[in-house]
Amino acid sequence: MQFERGSVFRFLSWLFFTLIIDGIIKTTGRVVCAVFTKNKELSDSWLIAIACLFWLLVLVFIAQANQFIAVDVCLDAGGSYDYDAKVCIK
Fold it and tell me: How many other C-beta atoms lie within 10 A of the C-beta of residue 87?
């Protein structure tokens, strides 16, 4: 059985756009819009933009929460946290 490169790339691009763009990003955009607005007839471009903004905010939140978790773990272990050096002192 022999595959052509074009058909493999076509399948992979279909998979990417169907699963990633339609499945995850547009669905996230629809959910965010359903929570914050009554307008359910937004274009695909708006849904993608809103979903990308949402996921960017989630990443920023995770990065900020990571520092708070490090401080909390340090203090729970009985140490003190040096905020300037970002180091736990035991």
Answer: 13
List the Cα angle 68/72/74 in 5-degree steps.
120
**How far is 15 from 76, CA to CA, in rounded Å?**
46
- What Cα–Cα distance (Å) separates residue 63 from each residue in 59, 67, 73, 90? 6, 7, 16, 24
What gap in Å lies between CA 55 and CA 51, rounded to an integer?
Answer: 6
Q: Is the pLDDT of residue 1 over 60?
A: no
What does the pLDDT look like over 24-83, one tens digit per residue?
888 888 888 888 877 777 788 888 888 899 999 999 999 889 888 989 999 999 999 988
Looking at the chain, the whole-number percentage of residues with pLDDT higher than 90 is: 24
Residue identified by tokens 């909390």 is 72
Question: Strand, coil or helix: what is 73?
Answer: helix
pTM: 0.61
**How far is Cα of residue 52 from the mean position of the Cα atoms in its chain?**
8
